[in-house]
Structures are given as C-alpha cells and as structure tokens.
Amino acid sequence: MSADAEFEGARSPKTPRFRGPIMLRRDRKKGIGTTDQHLLDERGPVDWVHTDPWRVLRIQAEFIEGFGALAEVPSAVAVFGSSRTHSDSAEFQAGLAIGSALARAGFAVITGGGPGVMEAANRGASEAGGYSIGLGIELPFEQHLNEWVDLGINFRYFFARKTMFVKYSQAFVCLPGGFGTLDELFEALTLVQTRKITRFPIILFGTEYWTGLMDWIRDSLLGSAKIAPGDMGLLHLTDSVDEVVRIIVEAAQARHELSETGALEEQW
C-alpha cells in the first residue's frame, strides 16, 4: 500500500486540491481541512500565530500603521546616536542643540525614541516648539519611548522601522553611537549610492569621534577601489550645529527647485 493510501480519503497524486491560492498535489498530513474551517474552529493549538504567513500580516500591519501615522508630518530630519550617552555629556548637549536648531528651521525631528542622544534630540525639538517623533523597536530588554516624544510608534521589525526613517526624513544626522547608529548610517549610504532613494544629506557630527571612520573609508575602501571617488562626497563631517542646519536647508531648497523643473533625478 502506498503512503498516500494510508490517509482516509486518499486521492491520486496527480489530482490537485486547493487551499485558497495554494495548490497541493499530495496530502502530507491527515485532516488538512479548509481555510474557513481553520479560521472558525476555536479548538486546537495556537502555534499558528507564530508561523511565517501570519507574520506577513503583522509586517503588513506595521507598514500600514507607520505610513498612516507619519503621512502628514512636516519635513523631518532623522537624528541618530547612542542610547548610552549621559545627560551631562557634551554629546547630549549637542543632541539638544541640534534638535532645537532643526525645530527652529522648520523641521520635525525623528529619532529611535530611546534615551541618550535620541532623548536629547527629541527634547531639544520639543522645547523649541517643534514636532518630536520617536520610532521605537521591540528589544529583548525593556526600553520605553522617552517623555519628549509627541508622536511615537513602536515596531516589532527593524526593516519596517528603517523604511519609516528613510521615507520620512530629508536628512540623516549621526552623532557618536554604536552598532545601531552605524547600521542606519551605512544603510542610508548604500541606498543613496545605489540610487534606490533620492540623494539626501548624511551628516556625521563630531570630528573627533568620526574622523577614524572617515580615514578608513578613504584609505581602505577608496584606496582599494571598493567605492568610487565621488562616494566620499555622500558624507559630511562637522562639529558645527549651524553647519548641520545649513547643509540640510540648502539640500531641501535644491531638491525643491529640481522637483519643480522635473530634473530631480539629474542631480547626480
């Protein structure tokens, strides 16, 4: 007796059965049932909520929530930096100053919503009367959105959160930070370099902290022809809050002018 014949109501291997858009040619387990049956039957295990098809719906829901919440925010700038930065440090004060200056220039400020530099930038924007946004992430250790966030969204998935940063930011400003800051930095560089997104300013704030990285990019990556000479121009390095704002404002103005002439894609 064949293996398929062991199942009740076994059918020919060539006879397909359909479960929604899914076609099955052979039963691999007994009592597969219909989609409606699985939906409406209250009995049975709940492991299905952890399966990949169900995760797709959660992912879709995160994108819908994010797009819906952020669709009407004003022009915004993303500020990144370490969550471990102490409030009495120069880097925290720089975050405050940058958040405040961006708000006064008419930009909303988007951060990861956590403590440290993120809290500083949110606080600076809020105290200056600007719009302060936090995009949190579910982590193994507990972390809440800081109290200076006006609009906060918590994400399960990093890639959904990353999309919101890129889609709703006119520039990235990176203060000293760790792996998370580097992750956002190099993803933005890759997207801009490969023209997957329209070019926008990527600013490293803190020459003492970032000079080593800039030297490595120039000497190792450019020096061995792993990047093009023009790619170095994708990064700005500064210690000046005023220069941060100037770079972003000038880029926004240039982008607006290019969009009006239909030449936005020719700025490369």
From TrEMBL:
Keyword Hydrolase (UniProt)? yes
The reply to whether Hydrolase figures as a keyword in the UniProt entry is yes
Q: Which Pfam families match?
A: Lysine_decarbox (PF03641)
Q: Recite the UniProt keywords alphabetically.
A: Cytokinin biosynthesis, Hydrolase
What Enzyme Commission number(s) does the record list for this chain?
Answer: 3.2.2.n1
The Gene Ontology CC terms held by the record are: cytosol
Region of interest (Disordered), ranges: 1-20
One MF annotation (Gene Ontology) recorded for this entry: hydrolase activity
Can you state which reaction this protein catalyses?
N(6)-(dimethylallyl)adenosine 5'-phosphate + H2O = N(6)-dimethylallyladenine + D-ribose 5-phosphate; 9-ribosyl-trans-zeatin 5'-phosphate + H2O = trans-zeatin + D-ribose 5-phosphate
Q: Which Gene Ontology BP terms does the record give? A: cytokinin biosynthetic process
- Family membership: Belongs to the LOG family.
Q: What protein is this chain from?
A: Cytokinin riboside 5'-monophosphate phosphoribohydrolase
